Amino acid sequence: RRPNPARKPRGARLERNNFERNNMNRINNLYVHKNTVAHAVSTAYTPDGGCVENDSEIIHEHIIRLYINDDLYAKTTCTADDLAELVVGKLICERMIKGYGDISRIDINEDGSRAQVYLDKSIVLDSGIMVEPTCCTSNKVYLKPAVTDYLRFDEEVIKKSHKVEPGTVFKIINAFSLGSNIHKSTKGTHSAYLAYKGEIVFDCEDIGRHNAMDKVIGYSAIHGMDPSDCIIFTSGRVPVDMVQKVIFARVPILISKAVVTDEALKLAKECGLTLICKAWPDKYEVFA
Description:
The protein is of the alpha/beta class. The protein folds into 2 domains: 22-30 and 61-151, Ubiquitin-like (UB roll) (Roll), CATH 3.10.20.10; 166-286, CATH 3.40.140.10. The chain is built from 8 helices and 16 strands. It has helices at 10-13, 18-25, 83-93, 166-178, 181-186, 209-222, 240-248, 262-271; strands at 27-29, 37-45, 51-59, 62-68, 71-78, 103-108, 114-119, 125-126, 140-141, 144-145, 190-196, 199-206, 230-234, 253-256, 274-280, 283-286. The strands form 4 sheets. A 6-stranded mixed beta sheet has the order 1-6-7-4-5-9. Helix 7 runs parallel beside helix 8 (262-271). The protein is globular and about 65 Å long.
């Protein structure tokens, strides 16, 4: 990963307490970080007929297979970093688990091609399910819960609307403007930022906006953060499935550089989600 001037060193982001150390001890991550960027030779043409050969940076696609209790759950195409966060966030956002406490151990192998998740609670899974989410990557889901009672949210997902100070919003927007280094070199990633109690504690980039969202949600869960104190920023557009992820994670505020769809806005209002879109350094718009 290229250094991000807006990003704090991981060890300095949060003071680790015993709770957090115990959480991290559940992750056996043998993965050695791969390059997120590859190189290719391209030829650039201009309207005046000129051409020049370039050494272009392009995105490296990484495939990870996620197993739950030894059964294949999903195959995900992603950017090859923050894999533990991706796994935890994906399971929360897809309602396979309520939170990190449902996980007894995560094993990620050396090349990052396989993540094995062992759950504390016995969740019966149906096989033969293949779903392709509305995503720009070839993500596949092979299993789903056979019984959904354990995962049903009868209580209000977000108890009340949350207001956020303009200064906090612009702080996050400006951090995004300074960061996203992989995107600056390749024009091929989405970014997500996580603020906790008004301070940016984590950011990531991924080839898919869904994956980037999963990563910040997974990070907050692993580090035991209270979702009601979190804010998520995404560089991608906000259709219904992106709003659902934030609601299932019980995060009350979502900020996007891009636009929201009508159905996503309707869901945000129904669930009490504060939704800010078209967030740029000079202005932003509050939709819910």
